Amino acid sequence: MLQNNYDVVVIGGGVAAAIGAAQAGKKALLVERSSYLGGQATHCSIPTYDGFFTRHENSEQIAGGVASMVMEKLKQYHGCGEPLRSPWGNVMFSVNNEMTKIVLEELVMQSGAHLLLNSQLCDVVRNGNTIKSITLLTDGGKVQITAQAFVDASGDGNLVYLSGAEHTSPDVENLQFGSLLTRFGGVASDADVSPAALRAVIAQGKAAGITPLSKDSGFAMRIVGTEDVIAILCNEKVNPLDADSLTQGQIRARKQAMAYLDTFKRFLPGFEQAYVINTGPHIGIRESRHAVGEYALTGDDVVNAATARGCWPIERHTSANKMQVYTWIKDDGYYEIPLRSLKSINIDNLWLAGRIISCDSEAFASVRVMGTAFLTGHAAGIAASMKNTPTENDIAAIQCELKRQGALI
């Protein structure tokens, strides 16, 4: 049953943060505005978790702790495939989105954390530099919750914003593009969906006057356990904090999905009987607010593997029609993310997880992926669980608890 006071409250799909705090013996609440968990993976029908494995030829799993729990449970439920390499050599963990929702719910509830879906953060009360309470808006009315510590895992920095924590707003002109994923059914098993094949076919579609088509090429793959194909093609520049911009961008992106279907049916062998099963429930947002922490992770930290862990390269989506651009990590290894990047610089009981952690624009293009979000979330949840204890902000104690929970550090 929902209570009015917790040790740790996590806002957004911060499964790892909530489980980490609960496994540390704290009373934790996870608040999600949607009707299911999974963040960008399930909201946007993304078929892979990126950032669990290094790109090295002898790929190394760097994601332990809660991330490993998720992987193992998905395997038990036949909700994932074996790790696979993208055409650019990155190692991805393919997942079934529907099974991911179930697995995440089970793991949160088994941890002892309380899960509250369909609840939107709408207000924050501060006392000096400390968050005292939050207000949630539900269809049944408003609910006020107090806690010792909070974690913002919302992706958009909603708790950061409402609490007055230092942050930067999106630079709309230079934001990374959002993408609406499209799932196609009725595709022949031998259809070529490589980037090269897509490039040739899209050129034919554009030459034939089919509109609107944004990209010149794209990435597509088979969905685990099916013959269906999911494609990342419909690019739109949207301001994720402007409802009208999001609305218009998503309308345009769905029109693109139908234009790509027309193109593939006409010009791509194996797609003659294809149809759109669905588009992502939400356009995939790569960038929104950036929190300011005690240390800003830099692009040099990432590419030089100098300093939770991250292994995804710097990946920029800055052109509507072009493929993403990569800057590779030194020796295809991994880098470490300092705890100070997960701590708000001006709110003493606010921790950060996922794509809003403190970093510059170069580092952001790496840390934003979901595998890294699991790792930063796990660390943030444990750090938050130590609020008002003798080990508060004690890095050695936080690392010790992370290791006890199976994290790889």
What does this structure look like?
The protein has about 400 residues and is an alpha+beta fold. The protein has two domains: about 270 residues, 3-Layer(bba) Sandwich (FAD/NAD(P)-binding domain), CATH 3.50.50; about 100 residues, Alpha-Beta Plaits. Helix content is about 30%, strand content about 25%. Strands 1, 2, 6, 7, 8, 9 and 20 form a seven-stranded mixed sheet that branches. It has a four-stranded antiparallel sheet with strand order 12-13-11-14. A hairpin with a 6-residue loop joins strand 12 and strand 13. Helix 1 runs parallel beside helix 4, helix 1 packs parallel to helix 10 and helix 10 packs across helix 11. The model has no long low-confidence stretch (mean pLDDT about 90).
CATH first level of the largest domain: Alpha Beta
Average pLDDT reading: 92
Number of strands: 20
Characterize the main sheet.
Answer: 7 strands, mixed
Helix and strand content put the structural class at alpha+beta
